Amino acid sequence: MTAESKNQAIQLVVNGKTHRAVVAPQATLLELIRDHLGLTGTKEGCGKGQCGACTVLLDGKPVNSCLMLAVQAQGHQVVTIEGAEHEKELDPIQQAFIDEGAVQCGFCTPGLILSARALLDQHPHPDEDHIKEAISGHLCRCTGYSAIIRAIRRAASGGKS
To answer: Does pTM top 0.85 for this prediction?
Structure first.
């Protein structure tokens, strides 16, 4: 049996578009997104699920794509940061991150924005504890989190600071 015969064909929806791919059994969702689909907004930070840079939404829930096998995404809906915009307009969370200066180096930003999107989809008016819990799986070395929390609050309030 060759290594290629162990590969699996999968189908999933990424950012609203159906994709088919043949993946190795050990290939991660992150590798599929970046290497096969060419969507490089999802970052590889630690490769161990500790930093949150690889966060994507799987059926609306944040997941570490570096820990998830690509075959586990079979039949699911995935949203990456490239799918966050709406009809060429920034998602309100993206705009709030800009308005609040929550973007420094930007490496952690895509994952944070997607975790914030999942939070606001479930709890449109979260308190600060809910926000902190939602972003607890993300490491940000630049902002100190204050601007990020303000940005998520701004997005929750419809863009008002």
So the answer is: yes
